[in-house]
Write a structure and sequence with these properties.
It contains 9 helices and 7 strands. The protein is an alpha/beta fold and 196 residues long. The protein has a 7-stranded mixed sheet, with helices on both faces. The longest helix is centred in the middle third of the chain and has 13 residues.
């Protein structure tokens, strides 16, 4: 882990104790800060795997399409969106096997941010979702792959050879373990700083 992640341990631990971490996406804090800087009121987000992040995205973006395969998570997130009066989220209960087909229904170059943090089965995993979503992102769009340090996701950089990758390593609040979140930027015609 980078030095900053070690220095953040007291803050992350405190946040876990007071349940502050329940209000932000469950990923590396550096990645959350990066997304907070880049998601705007005009952003369109495709979230694969809903959760406590869904309301966080909906509060910042123009529109969120969130696919969830778990009945219980779907119900919990739907209740939270209703309680917070966030009506810009199209939350869908979708079989995991249908995720790629639903992703393909999205228009090409229509998504600003795609977040891949879903469950997996024998036919559909996060790499399958990476493959399905790449053309749906706008030039300069962000592809977020959570838990990128897992060995089964090591092919992601090979699938995105010209995409710039930001790697964030740090502690998630629950469980308190080191983790990696990668954020890829779809190439555009300008320099990287013009894209993001």
């Amino acid at each position: 882990m980078p030095v900053g992640a070690w220095l953040a341990i007291p803050w992350v631990t405190f946040g876990r104790l007071v349940r502050r971490g329940n209000r932000v996406p469950w990923m590396v804090p550096g990645a959350v800060r990066f997304l907070n800087r880049h998601i705007t009121a005009r952003s369109v987000i495709l979230e694969l795997g809903s959760g406590r992040s869904t309301a966080w995205y909906a509060a910042r973006a123009s529109r969120v399409v969130s696919l969830e395969s778990s009945d219980s998570w779907y119900a919990e997130v739907a209740e939270q969106l209703h309680r917070l009066r966030l009506d810009n989220c199209d939350l869908r209960l979708v079989s995991l096997s249908d995720f790629p087909a639903v992703i393909r229904e999205q228009s090409d170059a229509s998504i600003d941010v795609a977040v891949i943090d879903c469950q997996e089965n024998a036919k559909v995993n996060r790499i399958t979702c990476v493959e399905a979503v790449t053309d749906k992102l706008k030039p300069g769009g962000l592809l977020v792959l959570d838990d990128a340090d897992r060995e089964r996701y090591c092919s992601a950089p090979l699938l995105l050879p010209r995409w710039h990758r930001f790697t964030f390593i740090g502690l998630k609040s629950v469980p308190l373990v080191a983790n990696q979140t990668d954020i890829y930027v779809r190439p555009c015609s300008g320099a990287l700083n013009e894209c993001i």
